[in-house]
Specification:
The complex is a heterodimer of chains A (about 350) and B (about 550). Chain A is α+β, with helices and mostly antiparallel strands and about 350 residues long. Chain A has 3 domains: about 70 residues, Ubiquitin-like (UB roll); about 140 residues, Alpha-Beta Plaits (2-Layer Sandwich); about 70 residues, no CATH class. Chain A is built from 8 helices and 16 strands. In chain A, the strands form 6 sheets. A 5-stranded mixed β-sheet of chain A has the order 2-1-5-3-4, with helices on both faces. The longest helix of chain A has 19 residues. Chain B is of the alpha/beta class and about 550 residues long. Chain B has 20 helices and 21 strands. In chain B, helix 1 packs parallel to helix 11. Chain B starts with a helix and ends in a 10-residue tail after the last strand. Classes of the chains: A alpha+beta (about 350), B alpha/beta (about 550). The interface between A and B is large, with 109 and 148 residues. Strand 13 of chain A pairs antiparallel with strand 9 of chain B.
Chain lengths: ~350, ~550
């Protein structure tokens, strides 16, 4: 274990811990754009610089391990000045359209500019003008808002292990793009949206959230209804309507990972083909009915058949899509109310 | 599941998803995890690329996992047992078996060897099409690595020999002692979100919840007392028997909740005839599915985001599902509909909430005995979880098997029921793809636009023979039906093999599949049947919607 001091507070952490992690342990938030606890340390954005007594230069907190007796200042005058300059340099090549940006309210760049009072850049010069990729229904890529933190590249390579995107070119012209600058498509991309999940700015957007501000939604934790992996995620609800899905680091199975189905399925709920009224077939056509009529019809027809042919003339398919409670009730219903063991579901494997 | 239940005494994934990344070897057979279980697929790829694990992939198709593999064994569909027997033969004759483990933990070794001795690698290779050298390499790598897990999906079970296939894999894991330890074991990746739960809850003809047999007088008495009714001991019908009974007139009525057997069961035309022959059919679903079209009454159900409850995932973890929004219009949660209907049939079922149903499940189901909504509020628990202070179970069969000793069995290879011949020379195998999930995601425009129609995969050799190319339309015909589909020409499949999914009603692959069933589990043979293909010249398929 290592003892050190951060902003005058004593901290005791295991050797190998970084300054950033040590600070987090005692509730000190060191700003960062390219750091992510699940990814390899990149140390590229420099936002997390801190002053270490005795060191000549400011140190990046995300990549500097603690040393015994270290004295660290995370918001000293020198540190704040450096962070301001970093933000001003980023803004020099970033569209100033926060008012209409989808990411407003959930943008790290915006948050830090607010925190350090940076409202514009004193630097003027060439600006990027790259075409926005709007070629699919799910993800919008606006490279002009990219700050080159590299998190999307890492998550695509190391967590999703697909490698659809990477850095190309050098210096001012560095950008994150697809092979041959193709728009995202299913040949090169799995549309897991994990890049969107880690993007700190508005460069990568889940289109389903367009028109919704982050503070307008409430989140409901649930379990994905698709395959048997059992990912957890949050349904984002606005005015009694599911807007979209966001991942949560608290998910025991999947962490913040989701696949295309889990992340983007929400319009399934609002398919115009959903049936919302009971139907009874009369003369070969379905006609709308009340629950009273429909359930009475089922109960009476079942009873006629039980009386005439016995309970075993009725059979039920339960469902591997329904909840445990519903499957339990279906077998209970068949075994008690109907009186047969004729209950099964399609997953016999 | 019947296979693992026979071999070990309990049928479920033996290890946990969190352990996958830490396997040193992953033996992945009949599982296209990156598409069917994407997050597990990612962990497998991550094991290989980030942690340096080695993947042994057994699959007739060059899946994404095959691309990441150290050894890809491209077997002929339906020859799994011959291949696995060959691997066990090598492991035993080369002295790589774990005899101490076999001696202490297993029985039936002599029965196993009596069969396996007749599968020298040369013979196994001839049947499966996998080269002998590859078999040696795979056998050595798997047997000699401590943390080596087997992973399988429906590529193993959806055969007439599905149960036998699973028992073969159990043999392989037991002779090498890869059981009851972390990051190893035998791991079926369950297909649907709550297959595990539906089985656990007793939505099966022979068992109550927790696999308590209907035929067991103690269980029967327990449930009769809890439910206040005399219960039937007559053997219930499995799905194929139900459909057969419907077709023959023995089954008069069916109640189908949340399933679409017309699209998902093999031999769709047979299923249609069976449903049409019913006197009365009730369908309860979100949409008017292909099966619901035959219903006399349709009951509109709430979807998962509109109700409370739990799902049990493939690693036996019971997790919460929460109501986020109200159901649309008059739709109601399945559990509410069931309670209402039951009352009208003269059996009152009253629950204020699904939490109350879970209380009843907990009281009647030993493996769920410690599971309450309160305990799983934040993180789900893995059964067996017998008591309120039990922490749940991460991996099974440590020290002992539920049946005592693990059962090694001699399993003979049997060819698939229907193999290609002169008239139907192509082998059809089916599966899922990433963007879609069974027959439901097609109702999501976002997902549908990414992948709007079926593209059956055929090898360039076969494409050239009938003069077609990418996105052309072909007619695929089996002895049971005929469908039109667009194609993708790719060497991911071998010559003589066509791969289709069952996601699209315009190209319903299950009109072609064979309703031959595993004799024990009654699982359909979705993975092998014989078809012929020709260039489609009639009315083209509608353009993508």
């Amino acid at each position: 274990m290592v003892d050190l001091t951060i902003d005058g507070k004593a901290v005791n952490v295991p050797a190998g811990t970084t300054i950033l992690e040590a600070a987090q342990n005692i509730g000190i938030d060191i700003p960062n754009l390219c750091y992510d606890k699940d990814l390899t340390v990149f140390g590229g954005c420099r936002m997390c610089v801190v002053e270490v007594e005795g060191a000549r230069n400011l140190q990046t907190a995300c990549s500097t391990p603690v040393n015994p007796g270290m004295v660290v200042w995370t918001e000293s005058e020198r540190v704040v000045k450096a962070r301001r300059m970093i933000l001003e340099l980023l803004l020099a090549n970033h569209p100033s359209e926060c008012i209409i940006c989808e990411k407003t309210g959930d943008c790290r760049l915006q948050d830090y500019c607010y925190r350090y009072g940076v409202k514009e850049s004193p630097y003027t010069g060439e600006r990027r003008e790259v075409e926005i990729d709007r070629g699919n229904h799910l993800i919008e890529r606006d490279p002009n808002k990219c700050i080159l933190c590299g998190k999307c590249v890492q998550v695509c390579h190391d967590i999703q292990v697909t490698g659809t995107i990477d850095f190309v070119d050098r210096g001012f012209y560095t950008r994150v793009t697809t092979p041959y600058d193709l728009p995202l498509n299913t040949d090169i991309c799995r549309f897991c949206g994990q890049c969107v999940g880690v993007c700190p700015t508005g460069a990568l957007i889940n289109k389903q959230f367009k028109g919704t501000r982050p503070w307008e939604v409430s989140k409901v934790r649930t379990t994905c209804p698709f395959c048997g992996v059992g990912c957890n995620f949050d349904l984002n609800v606005k005015e009694e309507r599911v807007i979209g899905v966001t991942a949560t680091p608290e998910a025991p199975v999947n962490g913040r990972s989701l696949c295309v189905k889990g992340r983007f399925h929400k319009d399934l709920l609002y398919s115009p083909e959903r049936i919302t009224t009971p139907l009874i077939k009369r003369d070969g056509e379905f006609v709308e009915a009340s629950w009273e009529e429909a359930l009475e019809e089922v109960a009476s027809r079942f009873k006629v058949i039980i009386d005439r042919d016995g309970s075993d003339a009725i059979a039920a398919l339960s469902s591997a899509r329904c909840t445990n409670e519903e499957n339990f009730l279906m077998q209970k219903f068949m075994r008690t109310a109907v009186g047969t063991n004729n209950v099964d579901h399609c997953a016999r494997t | 599941m019947a296979g693992l239940a026979t071999s070990f005494g309990s049928g479920a994934m033996t290890n946990s998803i969190g352990e996958i990344e830490f396997n040193e070897v992953l033996f992945i057979i009949g599982s296209n995890a990156t598409e069917a279980h994407p997050i597990i697929g990612n962990k497998m790829k991550r094991a290989a690329t980030v942690r340096g694990a080695k993947l042994i992939v057994v699959d007739p198709r060059e899946t994404e996992l095959a691309e990441h593999s150290t050894i890809w064994m491209r077997l002929t569909p339906g020859t799994d047992i011959a291949l696995i027997n060959g691997l066990i033969h090598i492991i035993i004759t080369e002295g790589w078996a774990d005899h101490a483990y076999i001696e202490e933990r297993c029985e039936g070794y002599d029965d196993l060897w009596a069969v396996v001795k007749d599968y020298p690698p040369e013979r196994a290779s001839k049947i499966s099409g996998v080269p002998v050298e590859q078999m040696y390499a795979a056998a050595e790598l798997y047997a000699k690595t401590e943390k080596a897990g087997i992973f399988y999906t429906l590529g193993i079970t959806e055969h007439t020999t599905g149960t036998a296939n699973v028992m073969s894999l159990a043999n392989l894991a037991m002779v090498t002692g890869h059981m009851g330890v972390e990051s190893a074991g035998v791991n079926p990746l369950r297909g649907q979100n709550n297959v595990q739960g539906a089985c656990d809850m007793g939505a099966l003809p022979n068992v109550f919840s927790g696999y308590q047999a209907v035929a067991n007088p103690d269980s029967l008495k327990k449930f009769e007392e809890a439910w206040g009714r005399k219960l039937s001991t007559a053997k219930g019908l499995t799905i194929p028997d139900m459909l057969e009974g419907a077709a023959s007139g023995k089954v008069k009525a069916m109640y189908i909740m949340g399933e679409d057997p017309v699209l998902t069961d093999p031999d769709a035309n047979h299923v249609r005839k069976a449903l049409a022959n019913l006197e009365f059919l009730v369908a309860q679903d979100l949409f008017l599915s292909e099966s619901a079209l035959y219903a006399d009454v349709f009951l509109p159900a709430a979807c998962y985001a509109e109700k409370d409850g739990t799902f049990t995932n493939t690693e036996r973890r019971v997790q919460r599902v929460r109501r986020a929004v109200p159901p649309p219009g008059g739709a109601r949660a399945d559990w509410e509909i069931l309670c209402d209907l039951s009352g009208r049939m003269g059996y009152e079922m009253h629950y204020d909430s699904p939490a109350e149903i879970m209380e009843e499940i907990r009281r009647l189901t030993p493996s769920y005995g410690g599971i309450t909504y309160e305990r799983i509020e934040k993180v789900g628990l893995q059964w067996p979880c017998p008591t309120l202070d039990h922490p749940g179970t991460r991996y099974l069969h440590k020290g002992t098997f539920p049946r005592g000793k693990g059962l090694l069995q001699g399993i003979e290879y049997k060819p698939a029921e229907e193999l290609p011949d002169e008239e139907y020379p192509i082998l059809l195998t089916t599966g899922r793809k990433l963007i879609h999930y069974n027959v439901m995601t097609r109702y999501s425009d976002s997902l549908l636009t990414l992948d709007p129609y079926e593209r059956a995969e055929i090898n360039p050799v076969d494409a050239e023979k009938i003069g077609v190319g990418d996105d052309d339309q072909i007619r695929v015909t089996s002895r049971r039906g005929s469908v039109v589909t667009r194609i993708r020409v790719t060497d991911k499949v071998s010559p003589g093999v066509i791969f289709m999914t069952f996601h699209y009603k315009e190209s319903p692959a299950n009109e072609l599949t064979h309703a031959a069933f595993d004799p024990i589990a009654k699982t359909g043979e979705y993975k092998v049947c014989a078809v012929k293909i020709e260039k489609h010249t009639g009315e083209p398929l509608p353009a993508a919607n």
